[in-house]
Amino acid sequence: MGGDCRRLSHEDVARALRELDPAELLTAEPDQHWTVDQSGELALLRNPDGDAVASFAAADLRACRYAVLTVLAARALLVPTVITAAVLGSSPAARLLCGTLARCLPGLSQLAIYSVADAGLAAEFAAAGVDLSITPSTADAVFGASLVVVMDELPALPGVHAPMGAVVVNASGRDLVHDLANGIAEEYREAELRQVLAGEHPGRTRPDDVLLVDLSDTAAPDVALARAIHRLDTESPITARH
């Protein structure tokens, strides 16, 4: 792969995401002349001339999209109050999500993580003034959380239920089949979530309802997101040319 095509690593994408505003990504005007081609584990951003200008791991673009949609879902569907969150997962996508929540979710006071933590993440949370705790079990993480995000496929979790009024986000890429799915009053896929964000759907109507945002069908590469990351790299290169 030659020319002006840049290969952006997971770290490059994560650095770019720290500079992006989720709301601006949502309202970005679509440009059908730009495309993202995905082949296996690689995604290529192509300009209107058809030239590949950037390449990403498809999993990194998907993780960014999950993070952006989770923040926007929490802003739109949580009851306005102090927010406590639980993130269940140990993948790089879970770490990226945690950092995005700390930076971009107003009112977040505490986040409990089951299975993932590192010194860099702790520093991000300290800078954002958000308490970070590592829990020994999913039940401990979920207890009292108003936002629960499932990032990895989990074993059956008998007796682990989302608290009243919580928003549960399924960003695992698989159906949510354990007890966290019980008691769901309303479910939103990406299309319905976008309607809520655009003011075309009322969203939450009762404060005690448990709402599910299911992103399991969020598989297609996000052209606006890929373009935004590429634009940041072009304005201030975040990696070297290959």
List keywords for this structure.
7-stranded parallel β-sheet, 8 helices, 242 residues, alpha/beta
Give a short summary of the structure.
The protein has helices at residues 10-17, 22-27, 58-77, 92-104, 119-128, 138-142, 190-197, 223-235; strands spanning 6-7, 35-39, 42-46, 52-57, 83-88, 108-114, 131-134, 147-150, 167-170, 184-188, 210-214. The protein has 242 residues and is of the alpha/beta class.
List the helices and strands and how they pair.
Layout: E1 6-7, H1 10-17, H2 22-27, E2 35-39, E3 42-46, E4 52-57, H3 58-77, E5 83-88, H4 92-104, E6 108-114, H5 119-128, E7 131-134, H6 138-142, E8 147-150, E9 167-170, E10 184-188, H7 190-197, E11 210-214, H8 223-235
Helix pairs in contact: 3-4, 3-7, 4-5
Structure description:
There is one protein chain. The chain is an alpha/beta fold. It contains eight helices and eleven strands. The protein has helices at 10-17, 22-27, 58-77, 92-104, 119-128, 138-142, 190-197, 223-235; strands at residues 6-7, 35-39, 42-46, 52-57, 83-88, 108-114, 131-134, 147-150, 167-170, 184-188, 210-214. It is globular, with a radius of gyration of 18 Å.
Strand % is 15-25%
**What sort of overall outline do the alpha carbons produce when their principal axes are compared?**
globular
How many strand units?
A: 11
The percent of residues in helical segments reads: 25-40%
> Numbering strands along the chain, what is their spatial order in the largest sheet?
7-6-5-8-9-11-10
User: pLDDT average, as an integer?
Assistant: 86
Order of helices and strands: EHHEEEHEHEHEHEEEHEH
Low-confidence regions: none
From the helix content, strand content and strand pairing, which structural class follows?
alpha/beta
Helix tally? Answer: 8
What composes the largest sheet?
7 strands, parallel
Gyration radius, rounded = 18 Å
Q: Span from first to last CA?
A: 8 Å
